[in-house]
Every structure is written in structure tokens, then in C-alpha cells.
Amino acid sequence: MDRTTPTVTGTTRLPDSLCTHTPKCPSADSPDREAAHVVASHPEQGWSLLCNGVLLFEDTGELLPDGGVVAPHRPVAAVA
């Protein structure tokens, strides 16, 4: 069962039927991709699947639908 469809930019995302909210979620290649809605959450395993096909991990790392990886990017604590 193929759960992804190609987009114009070559990245993939879940079918639009899973993105029923308005406005539509940002694409996986958009800078604000983390703003997409969660469609499956497994906090006990440390990950969530976003509507745009991005796997978001609790350490803030990401696995993109095209196989790309975004390294964890937690904010650095400010030193007083």
C-alpha cells in the first residue's frame, strides 16, 4: 500500500485526505515543516508522524520523507 504521493518539488507527503484542516500543512521541504499537524504520536518510543510525512523525534531531530535527516536542534541554554 503506497501512502505517499509525489509533489512538484520531488519530496513526498501523505495523501491530502490526511490533511483535512485549513490552512494546509507546510510541506516537508518548507522551513516551518514542524508546524504540521501530528497524525500519529508514539511518545513512549520518542517520535511523531506529521501530516506532511516528516518523522519528528523527541530530541528535535527529523527524518524527511525523501530520506533526508535534520540533526537535533534543541535551543542552547543561555548562560547568565
From TrEMBL:
Pfam family, one: DUF5999
Region (Disordered): 1-31
Compositional bias ranges of the Low complexity kind: 1-12
Superkingdom of source: Bacteria
Protein name in UniProt: Uncharacterized protein
Provenance organism: Streptomyces paradoxus
